[in-house]
DNA sequence: TAGATTGTTAATCGATTAACAATC
DNA sequence: TAGATTGTTAATCGATTAACAATC
C-alpha cells in the first residue's frame, strides 16, 4: 500500500481507545469486539474498525481484538513506545498539578524540566524537579532532549514562552493559556484550554424550569 | 424562520471568537471583518460569517462586525449574560488551579462551592472558599443554585462523583479525569482531559532527524 | 459612485455509517 | 458447520468553502 494521511479526527480518538483498553486490561479482559468498544465509547463500531484498519490488521475475524496486542499497537502508533521528554513553563497551580499528573502519562512520556520567570519561584521543588529560570530553557531543552513544551503561564505571556520553546527546538507545544499562538509550520501546537469547554457547555444548559432536549433558534 | 439545530462544531468555535474579540476590544479596536478574524484564527472567513449568521445578522455589509456588539451577542448566545454557578469536586492541585482561574471565567460564571472526600481537606480555604465535605453536596447544589459540576478527582472516583452531581440536579458536567462517564441524557457532559491532547500531540512529532511535514503510514 | 464586506446559496470536500464478503 | 466479527467498499450524511447578489 502507498503512504496516505490519517485525519486528525482519527488520531484524536486513538488515546481514547487506549484509555478504555488499559481499563479492560486492568480488569483482565483478554479480547474485545468493536461492538463492545463502541458501547463503552458511544461510537459506531464501524468507525472504530475503520480507524484501526488505517494502521494495520489488528483484529481477528469472528473473534475481535486482543486487548494487550491492541494496546501495544496503539502505543506504537502514538510513538509512546519510546522515551519522550517534556518541559513545562509556569510553576503556578496548574503547572504543579500537571507535574503531579506525571504518573498518569504512562512510562515513556515524562515532564523532565520545569521553568518559571519568577525569581522567587526558581529553586522550588515540584514533584522532585527543581524549578529552573527561563534563561536555562534553551540549554536544558537541548541537554535533556525535550521535544514537547507545555505552557501554563497567563495568556499575555504565552506567546513569548512559545517563541522561546520554538527557538530551543521543541517539535510540539501544548498550550493551556486561553489564547491562540503563532508558531512555525514545523512545530505542532495543541490547545488544552478548558475555558472553551466550559463556555460551550453553558450553551447547552436548559433554561431553569425548561425540559426539552432541543437547542433552537428562531 | 423555523427552529433548527446548531452543530456542535459551530458552538465550540463561539468561545474562541469571544476570546479574540475580547482581545481586540482591550486594544480598542472598534470593528473587525470576517477576513481579519479568519487570519487570526486560521479559519475560513466564510465559515466565520456562516457561524455567526446562524444566530442573527450581526455584521454590516461593507463594514464588518462591531467588536463590542458582537461580544455582547456571543455572550448572550452562550448564556453568559446571566449568573451561572459552578461546583467543583476534588481540591487537589488541579482543583485549586481551577478555583484560582476564577478570574478568567468572566463575571457571570463562577465557582461557588468546592468539595472533597478527604476529611483532612475539609475546611481548608481555597481562593476564599471553604472546602466542604461530600455529604454537603446535594444540599449545597440546591441552595447555591449550582448548575455545572466540575470533576477533578482521580479517574477511579470520577463516576461516583458524577452520579452525585446528577442526583443533586446539575445540568452539565465538565470532567477532567481521564475516563468516560455515564450520565443520563438530560445532563450534558464535556471532557477536558489533557492527556488526550498530549498523546495525540506525540503522534505528530517528527522522528528526530527527520524533516518532512507529511504523516505517513505504509 | 466605487470599494468593501456581509449573508446565503450552491459546490465541494471529508467524515461517518451501513452493508457484506471474507474468515476465524 | 454455524455464529461472530473483522476489514473494506459503497452510500450517506454533514461540514467547509467558494461564489456572488445585496448593500453599507
TrEMBL record, chains A, B:
<dbReference type="GO" id="GO:0005737">
    <property type="term" value="C:cytoplasm"/>
</dbReference>
<keyword id="KW-0963">Cytoplasm</keyword>
<dbReference type="InterPro" id="IPR036388">
    <property type="entry name" value="WH-like_DNA-bd_sf"/>
</dbReference>
<dbReference type="GO" id="GO:0003677">
    <property type="term" value="F:DNA binding"/>
</dbReference>
<feature type="binding site">
    <location>
        <begin position="90"/>
        <end position="95"/>
    </location>
    <ligand>
        <name>NAD(+)</name>
    </ligand>
</feature>
<protein>
    <recommendedName>
        <fullName>Redox-sensing transcriptional repressor Rex</fullName>
    </recommendedName>
</protein>
<comment type="subunit">
    <text>Homodimer.</text>
</comment>
<dbReference type="InterPro" id="IPR003781">
    <property type="entry name" value="CoA-bd"/>
</dbReference>
<feature type="DNA-binding region" description="H-T-H motif">
    <location>
        <begin position="16"/>
        <end position="55"/>
    </location>
</feature>
<dbReference type="GO" id="GO:0045892">
    <property type="term" value="P:negative regulation of DNA-templated transcription"/>
</dbReference>
<dbReference type="InterPro" id="IPR058236">
    <property type="entry name" value="Rex_actinobacterial-type"/>
</dbReference>
<dbReference type="InterPro" id="IPR036291">
    <property type="entry name" value="NAD(P)-bd_dom_sf"/>
</dbReference>
<comment type="function">
    <text>Modulates transcription in response to changes in cellular NADH/NAD(+) redox state.</text>
</comment>
<dbReference type="Pfam" id="PF06971">
    <property type="entry name" value="Put_DNA-bind_N"/>
</dbReference>
<keyword id="KW-0238">DNA-binding</keyword>
<dbReference type="InterPro" id="IPR036390">
    <property type="entry name" value="WH_DNA-bd_sf"/>
</dbReference>
<keyword id="KW-0520">NAD</keyword>
<keyword id="KW-0804">Transcription</keyword>
<dbReference type="Pfam" id="PF02629">
    <property type="entry name" value="CoA_binding"/>
</dbReference>
<keyword id="KW-0678">Repressor</keyword>
<comment type="similarity">
    <text>Belongs to the transcriptional regulatory Rex family.</text>
</comment>
<dbReference type="InterPro" id="IPR022876">
    <property type="entry name" value="Tscrpt_rep_Rex"/>
</dbReference>
<dbReference type="GO" id="GO:0003700">
    <property type="term" value="F:DNA-binding transcription factor activity"/>
</dbReference>
<dbReference type="InterPro" id="IPR009718">
    <property type="entry name" value="Rex_DNA-bd_C_dom"/>
</dbReference>
<dbReference type="GO" id="GO:0051775">
    <property type="term" value="P:response to redox state"/>
</dbReference>
<keyword id="KW-0805">Transcription regulation</keyword>
